[in-house]
Write a structure and sequence with these properties.
The protein is an alpha/beta fold. It has helices spanning about 30-40, 60-65, 85-95, 105-115, 135-145, 155-165, 210, 235-245, 260-270, 285-290, 305-315, 325-330, 350-355, 360-375, 380-400; strands spanning about 1-5, 15-20, 45-55, 70-75, 100-105, 125, 150-155, 180, 220-225, 250-255, 275-280, 295-300, 320, 335-340. Strands 1-4-3-2-5-6-7-8 form an eight-stranded parallel beta sheet, sandwiched between helices. It has a six-stranded parallel beta sheet with strand order 11-10-9-12-13-14, sandwiched between helices. Helix 1 (about 30-40) packs across helix 15 and helix 3 (about 85-95) crosses helix 4. It is elongated, with a radius of gyration of 22 Å.
């Protein structure tokens, strides 16, 4: 249930550590989706999870959070309105007696530090992108307040480097401790597995190719993304048209939605290749769509560490992408796929054609992609590292409390 905060009772969770996820909105971005996905793997005999958000979007993941055992709360507010909600959020945190605040993305991070500065509650903050990519207001608010937290988590080494380069006044200390930790994003590899209509008896696995009028043996190149500037989907479509010049049987699948959708649709229409493009909108269940992809293609200008790409790899889809953000930390060029420099995106067409024309190589990279995720980017690994952080900051707070000291 999506509760307004004033209606929520104070509940006892026994010895469980009570964690509040704080985030601006609950759209279908990678940062948001990690909250329920990690909760499903966490030891909920040790942890109790809540989520407080501010900006409401119709296309949200509230049901997914609730299905993961997370209590969801809402304080209506936009970006600038958050400055007027500090007391209300502080009262809410005191009412529910949380042990840890875990904030995601700059606006929630600024709020957590503003509230937590007067409370004896540890603050954990996850940075999902490089600082250079934020607008000036969120950038400076994040930068100036950054040292008033206990642990700063970066989702990739590139994000960690950005935090170090942009930081001032030794921002990773609170209570005399140095805490900057890289915890790379992970995927539940037990859930994200490639499925086919022939091999699966699950009713939700449909013959998507038939539904989308894609020929049975046609190669499918796809992406799951929010249609926004950083994804550079206009370049994605341009690469797709170049691929069609050499592989006219190819089809292209875009899962998602966003501000660029109309412009992308117009670009596809002008290419006169509309029959080869399939825009299916936002999908709650992406595994069937990943399972008909032969190549996952990303043209991003910048990234943290994209969850959708890891999910595709877990479903045995090789990757052709720009070397944006954490992508270059995951993909080994020529092993799980191919990488280009960010400004050399046009080369993606040649790499995709090579995979289409060499099914044995494509299959080899598909297996390597899943193996890479299982070995180094599993949700179990990520959650284990998160739990270590939670236990550490909670223990430190308790020790200070026993000494009569604040954080």
């Amino acid at each position: 249930m999506n509760n307004e905060v004033e209606a929520g009772p104070v509940t006892s969770t026994g010895k469980k550590i009570k964690v509040l996820h704080l985030i601006k909105s609950l759209g279908r971005g990678g940062a948001e989706k990690l909250i329920p996905e990690t909760a499903l793997v966490h030891d909920q005999n040790k942890f109790n999870f809540h989520c407080l958000y501010f900006y409401h979007q119709e296309n949200n993941i509230i049901d997914e959070l609730e299905n993961a055992g997370i209590q969801v709360h809402h304080i209506p507010s936009g970006n600038l309105g958050l400055f007027f909600q500090v007391k209300r959020v502080r009262d809410f945190i005191l009412e529910y007696q949380f042990d840890i605040i875990h904030a995601h993305l700059p606006w929630a991070g600024i709020m957590a530090r503003s509230v937590g500065n007067t409370l004896n509650i540890p603050i954990v903050y996850t940075e999902h992108n490089t600082w250079e990519r934020y607008n000036k207001l969120s950038y400076w608010g994040n930068r100036i307040s950054f040292k008033r937290q206990d642990v700063a988590i970066a989702v990739s080494n590139e994000v960690a480097l950005s935090m170090r380069l942009n930081s001032i006044w030794d921002p990773y200390q609170r209570g005399g401790r140095m805490n900057l930790k890289v915890i790379q994003n992970g995927v539940n590899t037990n859930v994200f597995k490639r499925v086919t209509q022939e091999k699966s008896k699950k009713s939700e696995v449909r013959n998507l190719k038939s539904e989308l009028t894609i020929p049975k043996n046609a190669p499918v190149i796809g992406i799951v993304a929010v249609f926004r500037d950083q994804k550079r989907l206009w370049l994605w479509v341009e690469v797709a048209v170049k691929i069609l010049e050499q592989c006219p049987e190819a089809h292209f699948l875009l899962v998602g939605d966003g501000e660029w959708r109309e412009r992308i649709e117009e670009q596809i229409k002008k290419s006169e290749k509309e029959a080869h493009f399939h825009l299916v909108g936002v999908q709650k269940e992406v595994i069937p769509y990943l399972s008909i992809m032969d190549i996952y293609m990303s043209s991003s200008e910048f990234e943290g560490l994209p969850i959708a790409m890891l999910e595709a790899m877990s479903c045995e889809v090789p990757v052709v992408a720009t070397r944006a953000g954490g992508i270059g930390e995951v993909i080994q060029h020529g092993v799980q796929g191919y990488l280009t420099e960010i400004d050399d995106w046009a080369k993606m067409a040649d790499y995709a054609v090579e995979l289409i024309q060499n099914p044995m190589l494509q299959n080899q990279m598909a297996k390597a992609a899943r193996d890479r995720v299982i070995k180094d980017f599993s949700m179990n690994r990520m959650v284990g590292e998160l739990e270590e952080v939670y236990l550490s900051v909670n223990r430190f707070r308790r020790e200070l409390g026993e000494k009569g000291l604040g954080i």
